[in-house]
Each structure stands twice: as structure tokens, then as C-alpha cells.
Amino acid sequence: MSKVRIYSLAKDLGVDNAKMLEILDGLGVSYKSVSSTIEEDTVELIKQILEEEARDGAPAAAAEAQPQTTPPAQAQAAQPQVNQGQAQGAQPQVAAASSPTATAEREPQVAAAAPAEAEVPHRAPVVTIMGHVDHGKTSLLDYIRKTKVAAKEAGGITQHVGAFEAQTSKGRIVFIDTPGHEAFTTIRARGANVADIAIIVIAADDSLMPQTREAIAHAQAAKVPMIVAINKVDLPQADAERVKTDLTQLNLVPEEYGGDLVVVPVSAKTGEGVEDLLEYISLTAELEDLRADPKAPFSGVIIESRVDRQAGVLATVMVQQGTLHVGDFLVVGEGYGKIKAMTDSAGGRIKEAGPSTPVQVLGFSEAPASGETVLSAKNEHAAREVIGARASDRRDSENARERRKLTLEEMMGELGETRTVNLILRADTQGSVEAIQGILARKESDDVKINVMLAGIGAPTEGDVLLASTAEATILCFSVTPSGGVKKVADTKGVDIKSFRIIYELIDEVDRLLKGNVEPVFEERYLGRAEVRMVIRHPKSGNIAGSYVTDGMFRRNAKAKVTRGKAVVYEGTVVGLKRFKDDVREVQQGYECGINLDWEGVLEGDIIEASEMVEVEQA
Ligand SMILES: Nc1nc2c(ncn2[C@@H]2O[C@H](COP(=O)(O)OP(=O)(O)OP(=O)(O)O)[C@@H](O)[C@H]2O)c(=O)[nH]1
């Protein structure tokens, strides 16, 4: 008995895929995607249902049509990758709609006027292309751009805006044209999701390489559906079968091997397979049911921005919901701007832009960072109010973060819930990687799961740090160390990179993470007290409190609390300590010293108390 793919059947019967899935749901047939296959008897049932519908002029109740005795064969599993993805565009809608301050006033009763879910129009998918260096990401994007982008306006020079729109026989597809997972994760690191689908490009003559694995890990972490494009199939040494076999080792099983992964052989050089790839993108998008309301309050994400010497700040915004108009006020982070002009990705001037449209906006005074979310405000005053509220929220949360200690629940996760510890593993050899993974696998319990997001040979990369920051993972290194640059990025992103030379020390660290001591807990500890006996004005350092340490000791960089009478007049830091003319690290009780605070208000007679934050050992 032959099997048929759902989308081919839909095409043959002249109905859309959504309709086909609706009928299958009614029949209780399970499927993973529109490229799943169904049995012939199910096909017959579907035909009957459609005939009945056509006869009655109304949708037939699919469930009633199901015969009692012979349940239809189940569809073959297909494309779990495709199903992993949520409709990413749905998230910003919620965020924007729930923002009380920065909403466009075009639709005053958005909630009441919002169309029901089914009426919200579909939007074009946004696709990102990732893969190993030289596997052909840029060539593939160039081929699609050359063949699918409408001719530019005469004389117009298309500038690089970070995204372009391709017109295909199946509709519009938007490509993020900064290839590589760095761009993808930079955006994700800010909590935004722009891509709906990730194309993983793998060269047929090279197969899986370290960055291919990274790209796959990034797409999986983002829960973005993946399609694999096996590129360079025109080369004589191309071996697409090897790529497919190699993929199975990552538990990604291509459809032809009975699995779920959509794999499309292509050549960015000859164009072979590119149409198929575009078709698969459209099918995946259809399955994801991507929708956005052009009438809803606007929200979008910054794809990239730059400063043009003549024009000023040019930022590319991906419209995710609502519609942008020239003249709108936009709020990004703690800055705002008024749109003076907008250009589409083909370089043409436009006045408005709806969902899934990348537009270059002129009007910001400072270049916003990639991945920042953008909202609109009805006027300059409203924009300023939003920014003011954001600044004060930020200050509050910074203060709260400084003060607060982690609760047991925060450290352990909700009691009774399974916790997952995300790890990225880097080691010197494949043997070490496998040995460590073997030990880790035995450490899992019902309460705690270990998710090794990426295990690779060699020092951790910036890409690892970005992945770790979005997935709240810890990077563990065995016999490899991060470069200074990577360490710096990790510091700014708050990612822990821990290096070990002895395997059991690494395992001890994992034990600590499993126990839930993910973040160290700090406690304030008293150091000493000093009396201010005179205030000396220093030309470079400002006011220095000439003091006498009456108790304990003072240390540079300690926290300082200044009391005047009974009132605490300042809390800050000891930024410098001097004994006579020398800078010193510490001064003990019974000695005089100069204390330099990050404050100029100190007076004779004040008492300065020093303390420091120390890490508390967890039981
Ligand atoms: N024969 C053949 N060569 C290709 C194909 N696609 C890309 N190439 C060549 O492979 C090389 C690398 O292609 P790029 O498109 O620059 O690869 P990339 O993945 O964008 O590389 P990076 O941007 O450096 O990460 C170039 O010399 C391309 O001409 C293809 O389908 N067939």
C-alpha cells in the first residue's frame, strides 16, 4: 500500500494544507508536519469527506466520518524539528499589548477590537541561514536575492540593511542576510526572537563541522524549526548521503531514513534545489501558522544599525506586529526617535510597513543595538514618559539585585519540579569529551536533568558564550581555556566559564551545579571603623578623609558607610587608601590613614564603617 505526503495530497485535491490538517485532526490521525505521510485508506477517507462537503456545501464532521471498526493508519512521524518551534511572532504581540505605556493610539480599543485568532492574517516567515564557515551561506543568500528579489528602482543602490524580502511562487519569505549564528544569538540574547525558521547549510563535500553543530545547537535552544540544506551538490566529490548519515549521529534523522528532519540538496552555484528549499520553507511556515495583526499596536526588533556620515543613524527594524508609519515615535531601550524616513530592503522609499517587513528607519539619535525591541508611542511626551519609567525600573531592579539573596526555591527550582542544568562542554580531545559525557549521563536523576547543549573540541568560542547566555548554561572546559576576548564577552554577559585540568574537579563542579548552588550567595561582613579627624583636599583624588582606625581594619574597595551623629549620610566604596603619600591596600586598627571615598561630602567627626561582601559556603 503506497503512502502519500500530506502536502502533495493537499495540492492534488486543491485544498490548502491547513484544511488538510483540520480533516486529519478530526479523523484522529496523528502527524508531525505537512510532509508526514499518510496511508492510502486515510486518503480515501479524506476524499470522501471533501466530496461530502462539496455536496452539502458545508464542512462535514470529520469525526463522524471515521469508521468505527477500522481506524485509519497513523501518519508517519515527521519533522519534530519543525514542531519544536512556537510561532515566534506571537510573543512580541503579548509583550506589546501588555505594555501600558508605549502603545500606538491608532487602535484605542485594541483588546476589544482585536480580531479573533483565526482572523489575524498570516505573515511571511522570517528565515535565518546558519552553518559552518565556507559552506555557502552567503552564496545561497546571494542566489536567492539575485533570482527572487524584485528589481530595484532605477539608479537605486541597495544598501546592506541586514534582511531582504524574496518573492516566491508560494508568497513572500524574509531572509535575515547577516549569516551566522552570532547575529542570531545576539538578537536572542536580548530576549527577542526574530527568526521563525533556521536553514542549516552543510557543504556536501565537507559534511558536519564544528560550527554546523553549534548552529544546530543554537536553533534547538531557540526552539526554531530547522531545515537542512545540503549545499554544493554540483561538486563531483559531493556526498549528500554521508551528510545524512552524519546527521543521524546527532539524533537528527532525515525523512528518507524514516526520521523527521527535512533535508534538501541544493547548489548555490547552479541553483539546483533552491526552489525546493523555498517550497519547504513555505510549508514549514504554513504549519507554524504564523500570524500577526497589522492593526495591532506596533512592535518590532532591531536587526542592525549603523551611523551614516551624511544621513545619521540608520536602523533596520523588523516589524513583528502592527504597522509602522513615517512620523511615528519609536522607543528603544531608554532612547527614542521619530521616523523621518523609511526605506524597504530593496532601497525604495516607503510610508508604511506591516508585519514581517524589514525596514530601514532614519530618525534615531543614537544607534540602537541588535536585538532590542522597539515599540511606538503616540507623541514625544509619551515616548519620554516610557523612557523615564524604564530608567526608574532599571534602577529599582539594579538596587534590588544588589540587596537580595537567592531563596531556596530560586536556587533549587520549584520543589518537586524536574530541574535542567544546561552545560556546554569543551575539551582537548574527542576522547575526553566522550569520557566526560559518559560520567555526566550517570549523574542524572529524576529531579535533575543534565542537558549538554554542545560538546566540542577546542577552546570555547564567543558563539558558545552567546548560546550559554540565552540558555543560562555554564561552560565547562577540560584542558582548554578561553581566550581573553571570549572571557571578556562572558563577563559582560554574566556567563560562567570554568576550566579544569583534572576530570574529577570538573565532575565536582557539576555536582555543585546539580545541587543547585548555581549562584554563590554573598553576605556582608564587618571589617572595621575609623574616625574622620580632618578632611584634606587632594588635587586629583578630591576630598580625602584623614582618619584614625579605631577598630578592625580598612581595605581598599571595601564598602563604606558614613555616619554623622546618628544618621547614615552616605553608603559607597573605599576607592583609595593612603598611608602618608603611599597608596596601600589595608590599614589596621591603631593607625592613621587617608580614606578616599567615591563621595565628596565627608566631614570632620564622621564615622566611617567598612565592610565587604563574602561568598557564603552552601551546605
Ligand atoms: N561548487 C560550489 N561552490 C560553492 C557553492 N556554494 C558556495 N560555494 C563556494 O564556496 C565558497 C564559500 O562560500 P560562501 O558563500 O562564502 O560561504 P559562507 O558559508 O558564507 O562563508 P563565511 O561567510 O566565510 O562563513 C565560495 O568560494 C563559494 O563560491 C555551491 O553550491 N557549489
Automatic annotation (TrEMBL):
PROSITE patterns: G_TR_2 (PS51722), IF2 (PS01176). It holds the Pfam family GTP_EFTU. Residues 55-118 are annotated as: Disordered. The keyword Metal-binding does not apply. It is found in: Cytoplasm. Residues 125-273 are annotated as: G-domain. Residues 122-295 form the Tr-type G domain. SUPFAM superfamilies: Initiation factor IF2/eIF5b, domain 3, P-loop containing nucleoside triphosphate hydrolases, Translation proteins. Its main location: cytoplasm. GO terms for cellular component: cytosol. It comes from the Bacteria. GTP binds at residues 131-138, 177-181, 231-234. One of the essential components for the initiation of protein synthesis. Protects formylmethionyl-tRNA from spontaneous hydrolysis and promotes its binding to the 30S ribosomal subunits. Also involved in the hydrolysis of GTP during the formation of the 70S ribosomal complex. PANTHER family: TR-TYPE G DOMAIN-CONTAINING PROTEIN, TRANSLATION INITIATION FACTOR IF-2-RELATED. This is Translation initiation factor IF-2. It comes from Deinococcus budaensis. The lineage of its organism: Bacteria, Thermotogati, Deinococcota, Deinococci, Deinococcales.
